[in-house]
Structure formats: C-alpha cells, structure tokens
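Let's inspect a concrete specimen:
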Amino acid sequence: MPVTRIPLGLPRFDAEAIAYAAARLTPRDYQILEHLLHHRVLTTHQLQRLFFTKPQPTRRRLGVLYKLNTITRYRPWSPYGGSSPHHWVLGRAGAELLALRRHTTVKELGYHPDLAMSIAVSSKSGHQIGVNDFFVHLGHLARHDPETHVRAWLSEKQCAKIWGDLARPDAYGCWSEHGHQVDFFLEHDTGSMTLAKVTNKLAAYADLADTTGITTPVLFWLPSRTRENNLRSLITTADLPIATAVQTDLDDGPAGPCWLPTTAKTGQNRMRLADLASGWPHLALGQTTEQAATGEDDSERLYRIVGEESR
C-alpha cells in the first residue's frame, strides 16, 4: 500500500496523522528516530551501516520515513563536484511519536521544527558527522561480531547534561571486545582549533576526575599524523589517561590497533581500542578506590555514571 505524504506545513499534527504514521513504524524505525534525536544528524551511509545491509533497502525505507515526516533531510553543497549524501534529521512527526512513547512533550524532548535548517547551515555539522562516524564504525563492527558491543554512546548534549559544569567532551562511549572493555571521552579533532586550545581542555578533564573520583581515558581522534605528533609533544601530564590516533577506516577503524597512550615508550606498538583499559597500569581507570574495594561490576558502574541517559 502506498504511503500518503504527511504535509510539512501543519503547525501541529492531528491525532489521525500521528496514528497513520505510528501504524507504519517498526521497532527498527523507532531506533532510527532515537538515534537522530540524540545524535542530531546521520548520513544515508551511516544509517545503512547501523541498521541495514544494502543501499537499496536503506534508501527505500528512509524514503518511507521521509514521506511520513518522521525524518527530514538536506544535502550539503559539495565543493569538489558530484553530490553529497543525504543528511537525515528527526522530523516533526518523529518527534511527536517519540514524545508520546516517553509520555512527555515535543518541547521537553528539546526538538524544534527548524532543527534541520539550523543543522544544515551550522559550521559544526561536519564535526558532528565526524563524531557520529566514529561510533557508526564501532556499531557496524558490533553488528557483525557478537563478541563486540557498543555499551554506551552519549552525545555532546547528553554529556553536557551530566558533566557540563566540569568538562564538555564531544561524546562518551563504552566499548567491549572479546572480554576487554574500556569507557572513554572522545575529542574529535578537525584541525580547526589551535593545539594550545586543545590541550587547555585537559584541565577540565582533570577537574572532572578529581571531583567524581573516576578516571576516564580521553581519546583524541586526529586528522593527520603531523597534528597527532604536534599534540603529543604538548601533553606533559601523566596523571590523566590520554591516547591519540589518526582517523582511519582501516583495520577495524577506531576499534583497531591505532591508539597510542601519551605515556607510551619509544617503539611501543599501537593498541586496539578495547585494550586501552590496560594502557595506563599506574592509574585505576573507571572506578574509585571504594569501588575497587567493593567489587562493583561494569554494569553497575555504567548505570551509575550515565543513568537514564544510556537507555
């Protein structure tokens, strides 16, 4: 049965329109809406890697969700010719449905009808796509290996809600692989900020660790080897667990052997993401002294750290 297009211009969707859309959504569709709510914008390719397998079914389903106005889209101008992929953002009907499922309002979700426009014209949209791509790679790997899991992925906005009075990471994540697990703060670097400003962020992470009693690795995902080397030369502290890597799609991307702790000795091999939990043997990562003594397990620790935000 063909899907009727729900018009964009309505100031408010009536109950009939919402019921029409709700009757056509699957559990996977709601997962897509949740991801767009939290992570603002994802490309067609990113959504394919997270939720689908082949391009044609991806485009077909996204087209249905677009007709229902549960999602909307824009396509950035490409300075190098050709066309950029569609960038997908939560639509008004999608926000209405998520609000109903949560027994809240669209306003309390933090959604605004002009969201797509504001993201499309924002100078930070490329940075957001880069942050999301980091976790899309992890999520894609986890889909194909039952021994790997993205146990947490919190956006910048979610992080600010929890830790914003002390530190503002681009994202928080927890990754497990074959019995190894690491939680981390991500700093996705595009090269647009001076390295002095980048290193100045470390004081906030130190304050966060002191305040919470929880030492969490800070990972810098950098655009080039030169910038990585220059950043590493400026980092002198050994009291924070810091690791760097150059952005890559090879060898499992960010999950692969691309990470080097700033305390690494000359000639030390780079480490897989999950192995970074052992990268700073002089530091107790992810737990306070009291937690180490009581034996609090990972699931309890994650729930306490991220609470409802990880659900």
User: Anything to note?
Assistant: Residues 5 and 67 are 5 Å apart (CA to CA).
